[in-house]
Design brief:
alpha+beta; Mannose-Binding Protein A, Chain A; 3 domains; 20% helix; C-type_lectin-like/link_sf
């Protein structure tokens, strides 16, 4: 079995070119790596598609997205990393009669809609001062999502964006009945049990009513297919050690048995780690974040500079013998804890 790897900060994708069924591929990945590949955002998607360009055959390669026999449909936001909790459905709306994509009215209430209808839509851009873009051109929901991801960041998603004053002004200046937003409902799950909502369907190979319950990656995106033999992507990732140890004991354990305590340098890595901490048996988990009392600053044991930060409260005091731990519930913020406390 030949393979090659794509390396990231926290995880590594491995491509295996021996064709297997989806279940056989998953079993191999679990036995030799972590699981079939989980794709969390457009960065992952672009890395895999770029790697697949010259190596993956036209038949595609398995990833870990599947539709289990016992289905459980859920609403998700298109923009990765947002929790779906509070809602603003209009009267009589929400997941009825195969209406599995979300839109918004002028009064800001939500509408469930058939995904294949052509409608205008609103994109969100995180990199510009003008964050919201009303696209008058009509597209299906999947085409709108792809357009927003190619030209901006994503379809407008999440309660914070939908309540933004700038968005309200954008909507007030337009004439429409309702427009697509980044809200969708599906019954697909990642094989590793994670709750990541990222999907990038090939709109030419997606029919929500067929019996194709497994997902392959092609150059056009994620495609549903029947369970035949294909090459596949595995991944290796951060590992949760469900033993309570002091920070120093945890550091030595990770360096002896694995690589090191985890380093988190951006929001994408934060999401990976917080997803893993949901299974912890302690209220916090240790990270590779350490305070040097002599020099008076925080650093990662991997020698990465602490640029990205997710501290819970600026009022936490910096003291000697302190290290960084992530909260395993709530918003998964970072807390400054004494080294001798014992966590996973």
């Amino acid at each position: 079995m030949q393979s090659w790897s794509i390396t990231g900060q926290l995880y590594e994708y491995k491509y295996l070119n021996t064709p297997e069924t989806w279940e056989e591929a998953q079993q191999y990945c679990i036995q030799h790596h972590t699981d079939l590949a989980t794709v969390t955002n457009m960065t992952d998607m672009k890395r895999l598609r770029e790697a697949a360009k010259n190596n993956v055959p036209n038949t595609g390669a398995w990833i870990g997205l599947q539709r289990p026999q016992t289905t459980n449909r859920k609403w998700h936001w298109s923009l990765p990393g947002l929790e779906f909790n509070e809602t603003n459905w209009g009267f009589g709306e929400s997941s009825t009669h195969d209406q599995y994509c979300g839109a918004i009215r002028k009064d800001l209430t939500w509408v469930d809609h058939e995904c294949g209808a052509n409608k205008s839509f609103i994109c969100y851009n995180s990199d510009t001062s003008e964050r919201f873009y009303f696209i008058k051109e009509v597209k299906t929901w999947f085409e709108a999502q792809r357009f927003c991801r190619d030209k901006h960041t994503d379809l407008v998603s999440g309660l914070q964006q939908l309540r933004d004053e700038q968005l309200n002004k954008t909507i007030d200046s337009k004439s429409f009945d309702f427009v697509y937003i980044g809200l969708f409902n599906d019954d697909w799950e990642w094989s590793n049990g994670s709750s990541f909502s990222f999907r990038q369907w090939d709109e030419n190979n997606y029919d929500d009513k067929d019996d194709h319950n497994y997902t392959m990656l092609t150059q056009s995106g994620m495609s549903k297919t029947k369970n035949n033999n294909k090459p596949f992507f595995c991944y290796e990732h951060v590992i949760l050690i469900k033993e309570n140890r002091s920070w120093e004991e945890a550091l030595y354990y990770c360096r002896h048995h694995h690589h090191d305590l985890v380093t988190i340098t951006n929001m994408d890595e934060q999401r990976w780690v917080q997803e893993k901490t949901k299974n912890a048996s302690s209220p916090f988990v240790w990270t590779g974040l350490r305070y040097t009392c002599t020099l008076g600053f925080w650093f990662w044991v991997s020698d990465e500079v602490v640029h990205y930060k997710n501290w819970a409260s600026p009022g936490q005091v910096n003291e000697c013998d302190m290290s960084g731990a992530m909260q395993t519930g709530g918003e998964h913020k970072w807390f400054k804890k004494h080294d001798e406390e014992k966590f996973n």
